[in-house]
Request: fold
Amino acid sequence: QVRLVESGGGLVQPGGSLTLSCAASGSIFGYYYMGWYRQAPGKQRELVASISNEGSANYGDSVKGRFTISTDNAKKTMNLQMNSLKPEDTAVYYCRFSNSLGLYWGQGTQVTVSS
Reply:
């Protein structure tokens, strides 16, 4: 079992920045992926960014060049630095963890980009 705790969401003005964090605990071993997904009202959940514990990162097209994902393997945490935020980035952001044991989701954190 893996537990994920997200933090860092909130309200920010367009053009601003936020950093989301996800702390993982439990059965974390072997090769794994962590990622951020988001879901806006009336839309499907979509990939924001993902990264493996070997450092291989992948980004959704809408956030490339603005968001940066990183991990601290020793602390089992993952961060998402979000810059140049736009109103269309408004969504609930979910942390996801996957390894050979299964797939796990965090509870979600709201990000609102508005003036």
The chain has a mean pLDDT of 93.
